[in-house]
Amino acid sequence: MSTWSLKIGVVGFGSFGQFLAKTMIKQGHTLRATSRTDYSLLCLPMGIQFFRDVAAFLEADNDVILVCTSILSLSEVLSSMPLTCLKRSTLFVDVLSVKEHPRNLLIKVLPEESDILCTHPMFGPDSGKDGWQDLTFVYDKVRIRDEAICSSFLHIFASEGCRMLQMSCEEHDKIAAKSQFITHTIGRTLAEMDIKSTPIDTKGFHSLVQLKDTTIRDSFDLYSGLFLHNRFAVQELENLEHALHKVKEMLVQRKSEELGLEKTEC
To answer: Which residues, by range, are in coiled-coil regions (predicted)?
Structure first.
């Protein structure tokens, strides 16, 4: 695999963008950033050039533009970018937790000569704080002409020991609706129930409390984005509701049987 130092421009320099940037800088890549919030003072000691002017950011001759916005703000952010300022063909990469939505938007708004790589690092600042070894990185080469740039970007994650998994955006969203979305839904439901640790916790219940605590650390915007922009999530939510109803019916049926048995014995 041919690799070299990349010039990477980060759009959206929140906690996840900062998390990825630290490893990219460590590997020797040159980073620029732009964001709605002014992160100039944060970027300075990291050696990252921060642009308040998005047009100047796009003119800065980036090899890669890494989109780290929230799911809900992606459309607005892309539509506000003066993409005619791009000086050459550029690889656009997103890292959102849904994949069909950014793929469709990027295809719609980007110049035809821009390459598109849709990715989802299946980890974040908490799970990846001690390194990325054996953590999963999902990607889909939606539109790639410059294989060298694409390979060099993917090498950032492969060289850190990530499990590289190539998968279509559609397949990703199908699986994520059954896994990530349901995980967040259960966690949010437990939070609504206000479950807390007790003096007699089993290991199973302790895991549920941990799940609740982990999911509510993520914003409701992230959770609602997993629902609003993954077309498979609605069905999974209905499946969960149906399953809970079925379990309740089984318990009611067993209770009815037990009551009938007690009457017979009397």
So the answer is: 230-257
Residue 244: what residue type? Answer: L
Neighbours of 190 (CB within 10 A): 17
Domain of residue 83, residue span: 7-167
Could you tell me where the DSSP H helices lie in the chain?
15-26, 40-46, 54-58, 74-80, 100-109, 147-158, 169-178, 180-192, 203-217, 220-228, 233-265
Pairing of strands 49-51, 64-67: unpaired
pLDDT above 70 as % of the chain: 99
Domain end among 167, 195, 222 = 167
Q: What is the pLDDT of residues 191-226, one digit of tens each?
A: 999 999 999 999 999 999 999 999 999 999 999 999
Q: Hey, how many other C-beta atoms are within 10 angstroms of the C-beta on 157?
A: 20
Q: Which of 118, 150, 167 is the last residue of a domain?
A: 167
The closest alpha carbon to 95, from 5, 189, 12, belongs to 12
**Residue type for position 258:** E
How many structural domains is the chain composed of? Answer: 2
| pLDDT 10s digits, 11-67 | 999 999 999 999 999 999 999 999 999 999 999 999 999 999 999 999 999 999 999
Edge-to-edge strand list for the sheet holding 49-51: 49-51, 30-34, 7-11, 64-67, 91-94, 115-121, 136-143, 163-166
What confidence score (pLDDT) does residue 260 get? 87
Domain-embedded: residue 2: no
1 falls within a domain: no
Q: Is the pLDDT of residue 1 over 70?
A: no
